[in-house]
Amino acid sequence: PDQHVVVDPTGRANGRGAYLHRLGSCWEKALKGGTMNYALKITPAPEDMEALRAFAMSLLADEESDLQ
Asked: Which residue stretches of 1-68 are H helix?
């Protein structure tokens, strides 16, 4: 309702949601091409997009550390 986009690991927050794998590559793809905007039917605020990108980067960092 407040037009903010946040990561909800429980999947139970109120509002419209988009389900993504916990893979950095899935998040990169969703954030890059406007797929997230289409799924959520809004354009997230720039600060929300930065928070989502930071979350995606943390997933990518976790994946890289798991490979080593």
From this structure: 24-32, 35-40, 46-67
pLDDT at 50 over 80: yes
Global model pTM greater than 0.70: yes
Give the integer Cα–Cα distance in Å for 56 and 23. Answer: 8
Answer yes or no: are the C-beta atoms of 59 and 24 closer than 8 Å.
yes
pLDDT digits (tens, 9 = 90+) for 8-40: 989 888 888 888 888 988 998 899 888 888 988
- The CA-based dihedral angle spanning residues 43, 49, 51, 56, taken in that order and rounded to the nearest 10 degrees: 110
Cα 15–21–22 angle (5° rounding)?
Answer: 100
How far apart are the C-alpha atoms of 31 and 67, rounded to whole Å? Answer: 24
